[in-house]
Design brief:
Blueprint (H helix, E strand, L loop, with lengths): L1 H18 L3 H19 L3 H40 L16 H54 L9 H29 L8 E4 H18 L3 E5 L6 E4 L1 H17 L5 E8 L3 E8 L6 H4 L11 H6 L6 H11 L5 E5 L3 E9 L1
Parallel strand pairs: 2-4
Antiparallel strand pairs: 1-3, 4-5, 5-7, 6-7
Bound molecules: adenosine-5'-diphosphate (ADP).
């Protein structure tokens, strides 16, 4: 009995306290009613009756308004509680009464955004951990190798004319690999932290590529490969950052030479309406179809041992992709195992 009474009292209290936000409106309404009653009934008995009735209706309305407001707030509170406790998987599980449809929609959108942000951060964190693990692994390989060669030399091999030069050359090759890796890591971190500033200028693509080819001729000759540039219309000017593009060509051309055992490497420029498409084609080992989509990932190599043996870092194409994207272009790859590969991208005219 007492329990029920207390419950009713508590409910009354909370409903009225919830309705207290409407108190100002309630008093304004009350004063208008009194004025209205006075104008209509004057100071007769009806006036008092009308006022009493109005007060009763007002209190009842306050009670129901408060009750309704409390219910709505509780619904919203419950939804927020469920989100906070991770009880919900999909935004559709967020449900509010029909009159709160707008609020429901906003909470659903906020929930979606929060989920996306969390997923993005989790992915980022995973990538960061993987990257760190890869970097440590990549650094360990050349450092251990150098250590091994130096220790062997110190243990006496230095006096063995047959092997000492070979060991030194090997150690030297690994120091070159190490320095390549560090340079690529610096580039990647500059690019990803947004510190890489681009400076776009128009330049003569024929002159630029001819000098690039000259630079790479000795490397190609060293592997008995032909390196051919097919010039485009003489005065074609393309827009780009020559310094950053140099890195793109160095990486693609070095790869073309590294992964080609015989044949040739050709460079074409196809003039299009608004751009110039630069194509670098080799007759090398090619890339399996399943790997093509992944070769732009950091540290991804089709054949790890082969890449390392030829001084690869696994970062070259990741850098290429970033720089091409900064020029507003994607990198296209066509390749056939055993026949060769073709890398291309566009520069604006
Ligand atoms: P790496 O330093 O290992 O060459 P890249 O990021 O430059 O790293 O290239 C990633 C991988 O893509 C290489 O390890 C290689 O397997 C493959 N690849 C890149 N260019 C070529 C090419 N021209 N021919 C065949 N495979 C290639």
């Amino acid at each position: 009995m007492w329990g029920t009474g207390l419950k009713v009292w508590n409910e009354l209290k909370s409903n009225f306290s919830s309705a207290s936000v409407y108190l100002k409106e309630f008093f304004l309404f009350g004063i208008s009613i009194i004025l209205l009653a006075y104008i209509i009934f004057g100071r007769s008995g009806y006036f008092t009756l009308f006022i009493i009735l109005s007060v009763l209706i007002g209190v009842l309305s306050l009670f129901f308004l408060g009750k309704r407001r409390l219910r709505e707030l509780n619904n919203i509170r419950q939804v927020i509680f469920n989100i906070r406790k991770n009880y919900l998987n999909k935004s559709e599980e967020i449900k509010l009464p029909a009159n709160l449809h707008g609020v429901e929609e906003e909470i659903q959108k906020m929930f979606e955004k929060m989920k996306n942000d969390i997923n993005y951060l989790t992915r980022l964190e995973k990538m960061r951990t993987e990257f760190l693990a890869n970097v440590s692994h990549e650094l360990r390989t050349p450092i251990f190798a150098i250590q091994g060669y130096v220790e062997t030399l110190l243990d006496g091999a230095i006096n063995d004319e047959k092997v000492n030069k070979y060991f030194l050359e090997k150690a030297n090759q690994h120091t070159i690999n190490l320095s390549n890796l560090l340079n690529d890591l610096i580039d990647i971190s500059m690019i990803e932290s947004g510190e890489m500033r681009m400076s776009f200028r128009y330049f003569n693509i024929n002159e630029y590529l001819s000098s690039m080819v000259k630079e790479f001729e000795p490397m190609a000759k060293g592997k008995n490969l032909e390196l051919i540039y097919h010039p485009v219309r003489e005065n074609l000017q393309l827009l780009g950052d020559k310094n950053k593009l140099r890195q793109v060509f160095i990486n693609i051309l070095t790869n073309a030479i590294k992964y080609t055992e015989e044949g040739k490497i050709e460079i074409f420029v196809e003039e299009e309406q608004k751009s110039g498409k630069i194509i670098i084609k080799d007759t090398g080992i090619g890339i399996p179809e399943t790997d093509i989509a992944r070769i732009f990932e950091r540290f991804y190599r089709v054949d790890k041992a082969r890449s390392r043996a030829v001084g690869g870092t696994g970062l070259g194409l990741a850098i290429v992709k970033h720089i091409a994207e900064a020029h507003g272009s994607a990198i296209e790859v066509k390749s056939e195992v055993g026949k060769g590969s073709e890398f291309s991208f566009r520069l604006k005219k």
